[in-house]
Design a protein that fits this description.
The chain has one helix at about 15-20, and strands spanning about 5, 10-15, 30-35. It is elongated, with a radius of gyration of 12 Å. It is about 10% helix and about 20% strand. About 5% of the residues are buried. The structure holds zinc ion. Zinc ion binds near residues 8, 11, 27 and 29.
């Protein structure tokens, strides 16, 4: 699952919401970036 993040409102946008329009559905910003897909969860105990 590919998700983007809006540069303006910092919301996560899924790939299906974008379709062909690369634009934030929340604020309409075109500034989207792809966060790292490899999320490393470090459990420190
Ligand atoms: Zn936005």
């Amino acid at each position: 699952m590919v998700s983007y993040k809006c540069f303006e409102c910092n919301r996560e946008i899924s790939d299906t919401m974008l379709r062909k329009k690369v634009r934030c559905p929340y604020c309409g910003s075109k500034m989207l970036f792809k966060p790292r897909q490899t999320t490393t969860v470090v459990k420190a105990r």
